[in-house]
Amino acid sequence: PVPYPFDHVESKWQAFWEENKTFKTPERNKSRPKKYVLDMFPYPSGAGLHVGHPEGYTASDVMARYWRMTGHDVLHPIGWDSFGLPAEQFAVQTGAQPADTTKANIANFKRQLKMLGFSYDWDRELATTDINYVKWTQWIFLQLFKKGLAEQSEVSVNWCPALGTVLANEEVINGKSERGDHPVMRLPLRQWVLKITNYADRLEAGLDGLDWPSGTLTAQQQWIGKSTGCEIVFDVEGNNSESVRVFTTRPDTLMGVTYVTLAPEHPLVSALTTPEQKEAVDKYVAETSSRSDLDRTSSKEKTGVFTGGYVTHPLSGEKVPVWVGDYVLGSYGTGAVMAVPAHDSRDFEFAKAFDLEIKWVVKPKEGELNEEEAFTEPGVSMNSGEFDGMTTDKCKEAVTKKLEENNKGGAKITYKLRDWVFSRQRYWGEPIPIYFPVDFPKGVDAKTQNPASDGCEHTIRYDQPIPVDEADLPLELPLMEDFKPGDDPAGCLARAKDWRYFEKDGKWFARETNTMPQWAGSCWYYLRFLDPKNNNEAFSKQADKDWMPVDLYVGGAEHAVLHLLYARFWHQVLFDLGYTEHPEPFQKLVHQGMILGSDGEKMSKSRGNVVNPDDIVTDQGADALRLYEMFMGPLEAVKPWQTSQVAGVVRFQNKVYNVVKVAAENNETEMDVETTRLLHKTMKKVTEDIKSMSFNTAISAMMVLTNHLQTLKEKVPLEAAEKLSLMVSPFAPHLGEECWSILGNTESLAYHPWVEYDETLCVDDEITMGVQVNGKARGEITIPADADEETAMAAAKEVDRVMNQIEGKEIKKIIYVPGRILNIIAK
Ligand code: ANZ
């Protein structure tokens, strides 16, 4: 055998594919099925590709190549998620411009992806930082703005002084920034907010029918947090016009309410507070204002204070005391709860802490109430007058109905999902295409003023946002020498005064200085891939019709909530506006499992366990890396990297190469029965395994076939070598093409029809043979012709007449000649 010259072969085929534009997306041919195969595009960091990237990218590439060979039109694009905080921080560290570092990082990533032989259509490459992409991201923002889905709001935001930016709730973990682990504080700030909550019901309902991992569906559901219950009105005692509305999932416990609790930020706190309680309430509200929602809900110790005020129970008419407690969140439901300490653990802890009344109104269906803790399970109502004896479900309905009749509330659905804080006080993002009029002090002639000059007194009318004319897009970032965040929460763009202020028709205006978050670009890149060169629209309706939805989306589970939810939200808006025919963008989603270091730990620079794909490709080749990553285990599983195992797939490649060479030289060899059967079984297995993305088992089936072909020495049939080359090509495309050409083909196999197996040839030949016990015929068995002794014995023991003879006896000897005789000697 000769060694497989991977180095030379891989560069040769990469040049061939590039020159021939082998993977250029075809014009859609309506008579053929289509597949849109999408990778979560990479963020081009300064560190380059790590071995986790090629795992998902190889998996999608196998599918794209398989589908091309099975008669599909395939769209398989790639691009760069290149805006964002890390790129900006990297530029700050290296003293360079983010535009330049981004360009260099993209070039490096591109080199690495090309070296791995992925079948991307490079003509569709895009970066979210491309000005022609920014233009359409800004255009989508304007559509959101015009639809009332983007608005400004004074929000209590998560301000991270170290990063100089506001973070979305989801970017804050335990009071620290997700990126960098810096402290985060709450601060009111003017922000752009996208009204994703308007789509909460659609985002929830749309999950139905998606072929996604169940964990990801659950994560999205929990994030959206649909809660079905009831809103109930408690009128304020001694004030006819005010009432406290509460949201509850347990209207059946209404007769067990012993107090009402308001969140400290509830608007009625001061109205309900009596003069005697004012000092205590004010103090409490001030103390709790800085606590995060997470702290407030997770701490066991309940704090609070009595307002001195009362509300009226909507059914009993009794006076109910009103408390303030920070375990009630201002941002969820109505910001107020009807407290039922007997049946809600939080209320129970609060009632115990302040010695408040506990009224039991639900008992278990069986057994006794334990009054040491809240009984939160469903059961049967008691101490509830007309509702007594009803099951929890029945009682919920009855109470809701009664409240509706009395005009004191009704059924209500609430979501945990919050609106999306969309502005960042950073440089490296898409400028938000909005501007505001500038006012000067009374009596000052605007014509003589320039708000960009120092000391020119003026006011920016944030209350009058004006969208940039669509014809004026893109709105480019100004070039700034110093783009570090400052202490101005308006962001660093506020310092680019010549960019910020402009004059039009004799009037002065100021641009929005916030930029979009990194999520913006990744919300719609899959749509731009449909039509990346279109200068007149974000993407054409025809392109949407041709290619959407994405048939397979491969990427990390870390995007299970945010990216996928934000992208679905934008998509649904574009659907409502008629730009896409498809309500959901990603039909099937697969998460590749993380590849750990050889020590079983997450790869990280500090641990020194990072495997660099460049090294593997240089030493063993791209196909070896691809094969190894697909062979490591099931795609979704978390797997440790084992460099020693790469040698195994290298040996496999060498064997494939050599059996193919032998077949090419002696191409007269005919297929024998055994090879025919193994070949068809392998073709069946590989085909089925690719369909179910079970790549490791497909590769091991090809290994078995290759080992068999190797045992044929100089007699490898051409047909077997051809089929093996085709099957191996989605995994090891360079090797596949090389083998294909060694076998005398002059065209690439990228579009050659996939192998077809004959089901009848996949079944093992079976024979029927007699079974003897102590030399006497006792029955017959039907087993594969080449079955081993164990299989034959197992079949024999199924035969009653055989079993009767050997039961309770010791088997002394078995005489087995496959296909001829099975004689069991038993005493
Ligand atoms: C009375 C009650 C009785 C409740 C009972 C529960 C059990 P989910 O499922 O998460 O939606 N709640 C409502 N608004 C709240 C807020 N802003 N902050 C903290 N808690 C709030 O939970 C809904 C339940 O959480 C509501 O039902 C309310 O407590 C509480 F035996 O009302 B319940």
UniProtKB/TrEMBL annotation:
Catalytic reaction annotation: tRNA(Leu) + L-leucine + ATP = L-leucyl-tRNA(Leu) + AMP + diphosphate
Primary enzyme class: ligase
Gene Ontology biological process terms in this record: leucyl-tRNA aminoacylation; mitochondrial translation
Methionyl/Valyl/Leucyl/Isoleucyl-tRNA synthetase anticodon-binding domain residues: 677-790
Keyword ATP-binding (UniProt): yes
InterPro entries reported in the protein's UniProt record: aa-tRNA-synth_I_CS (IPR001412), Leu-tRNA-ligase (IPR002302), Leu_tRNA-synth_edit (IPR025709), M/V/L/I-tRNA-synth_anticd-bd (IPR013155), Methionyl/Leucyl_tRNA_Synth (IPR015413)
UniProtKB keywords: Aminoacyl-tRNA synthetase, ATP-binding, Cytoplasm, Ligase, Nucleotide-binding, Protein biosynthesis
Any GO molecular function: ATP binding
EC number, UniProt record: 6.1.1.4
Keyword ATP-binding included in the entry's annotation: yes
Residue stretches making up the Leucyl-tRNA synthetase editing domain: 222-404
A cellular-component GO term for this protein: mitochondrion
A Pfam family: Anticodon_1
Residue span, Methionyl/Leucyl tRNA synthetase domain: 41-172, 570-635
Matching HAMAP family: Leu_tRNA_synth_B (MF_00049_B)
Similarity comment: Belongs to the class-I aminoacyl-tRNA synthetase family.
Listed name of the protein: leucine--tRNA ligase
